[in-house]
């Protein structure tokens, strides 16, 4: 799932909080605000050259992360594919929830992979919904028989489907740290009972709607993280939505509970990094090596395949450099 931002000029940031891989571009007319692992955030400058406080430019890079590292090899078109996927989902969800999108008219250098958005007061909660048991939910279930404090029946296993999506919120941890699970009572204390109930309802509905659409097209969305802003006391869907970076995508035809499911998008990356061919030891703490061209190309093809399956549209890059 996607990452909280890191200040762009924090000389005291621990190493590891600073993203590796290609850096955020300098954009004329914009001030760089933050960079997350794979995305960059800017504020447009006003006529006086000051950063505006009402808008943000959200830029998806071609950076890819694996095993908590940002790899030094970008995946061509990844930023554009994920940006267009988010925009497509915002449309699919427009009857459920308003969103932050203002315009896709952005600087040429980031055309196709950037969106101008309304700058909102963000809920201080990572809103996560899970439709399938895996990851952190599975760890909690194995320890206590619960997921996010809810008692579940015995006999569930890695990859089991829930009857309906569960709301499993977490804290927004600083970059480089892992989000911690939050109880629903903690969410209520943080944002009030009314916004908490609406966030829970919307998050689970977004994942349910996502799966109605995606599963008909061969993709399972096992879980997802969404971010909400608040505007005039109403929740607004912000950030990215139902992308492989904010969600676990699984190939539906290979779903088989009882073991970890292959990742739709990162399977080739993980498989190669863990293979002897990479020469990398995950336990070493060392940064992983650059990906070979065939792994990169097959990974690019998986992102494009996800976009084309979901939307039914052919991916034609519209972005910069063409
Ligand atoms: C999103 C993020 C990063 C991209 C802040 N509409 C909004 N209003 C206020 N804040 C945000 C948004 Cl989307 C916001 N993020 C996450 C970090 C690049 C997105 F470095 N952080």
TrEMBL record:
What are this entry's molecular-function GO terms?
phosphoribosylaminoimidazolesuccinocarboxamide synthase activity
Asked whether the keyword ATP-binding is assigned, the reply is: yes
Q: Which InterPro entries match?
A: SAICAR_synt/ADE2_N, SAICAR_synth
Q: In which pathway does it act?
A: Purine metabolism; IMP biosynthesis via de novo pathway; 5-amino-1-(5-phospho-D-ribosyl)imidazole-4-carboxamide from 5-amino-1-(5-phospho-D-ribosyl)imidazole-4-carboxylate: step 1/2
| Keyword set, alphabetical order | ATP-binding, Ligase, Nucleotide-binding, Purine biosynthesis
Q: Where is the SAICAR synthetase/ADE2 N-terminal domain?
A: 33-284
Q: Look at the named UniProt entry and state the broad enzyme category this protein falls under.
A: ligase
The answer, when asked if RNA-binding is one of the entry's keywords, is no
> Cross-referenced CDD domains, in alphabetical order?
SAICAR_synt_Sc
Catalytic activity, per the record? 5-amino-1-(5-phospho-D-ribosyl)imidazole-4-carboxylate + L-aspartate + ATP = (2S)-2-[5-amino-1-(5-phospho-beta-D-ribosyl)imidazole-4-carboxamido]succinate + ADP + phosphate + 2 H(+)
The EC number(s) given in the record are 6.3.2.6
Q: Which HAMAP family match?
A: SAICAR_synth
The protein's matches in NCBIfam families, at most eight in alphabetical order, are given as: PRK13961.1 (NF010568), purC (TIGR00081)
The UniProt similarity line reads: Belongs to the SAICAR synthetase family.
Q: What is this protein called in UniProt? A: Phosphoribosylaminoimidazole-succinocarboxamide synthase
Q: Which gene encodes it?
A: purC
């Amino acid at each position: 799932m996607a990452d909280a931002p890191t200040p762009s000029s924090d000389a005291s940031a621990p190493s590891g909080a600073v993203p590796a891989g290609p850096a955020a571009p300098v954009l004329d007319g914009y001030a760089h605000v933050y960079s997350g692992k794979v995305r960059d955030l800017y504020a447009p400058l006003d006529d006086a050259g000051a950063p505006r406080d009402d808008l943000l430019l959200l830029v998806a890079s071609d950076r890819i992360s694996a095993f908590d590292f940002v790899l030094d090899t970008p995946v061509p078109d990844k930023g554009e594919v994920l940006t267009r996927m988010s925009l497509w989902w915002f449309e699919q969800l427009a009857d459920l929830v308003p969103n932050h999108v203002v315009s896709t008219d952005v600087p040429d250098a980031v055309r196709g992979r950037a969106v101008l958005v309304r700058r909102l007061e963000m809920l201080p909660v990572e809103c996560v919904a899970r439709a399938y048991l895996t990851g952190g939910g599975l760890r909690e279930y194995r320890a206590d028989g619960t997921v996010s404090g809810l008692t579940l029946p015995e006999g569930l296993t890695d990859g089991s489907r829930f009857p309906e999506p569960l709301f499993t919120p977490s804290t927004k941890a600083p970059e480089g740290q892992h989000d911690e699970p939050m109880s629903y009572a903690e969410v209520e204390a943080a944002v009030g009972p009314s916004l908490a109930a609406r966030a829970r309802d919307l998050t689970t509905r977004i994942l349910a709607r996502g799966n109605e659409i995606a599963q008909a097209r061969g993709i399972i969305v096992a879980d997802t993280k969404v971010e909400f802003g608040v505007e005039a006391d109403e929740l607004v869907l912000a950030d990215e939505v139902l992308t492989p970076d904010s969600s676990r995508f699984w190939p539906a035809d290979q779903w088989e509970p009882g073991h970890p499911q292959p990742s739709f998008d990162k399977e080739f990356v993980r498989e190669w990094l863990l293979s002897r061919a990479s020469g990398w030891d995950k336990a070493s703490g060392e940064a992983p090596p650059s990906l070979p061209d065939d792994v990169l190309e097959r990974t690019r093809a998986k992102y494009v395949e996800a976009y084309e399956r979901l939307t039914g549209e052919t991916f034609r890059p519209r972005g910069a450099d063409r």
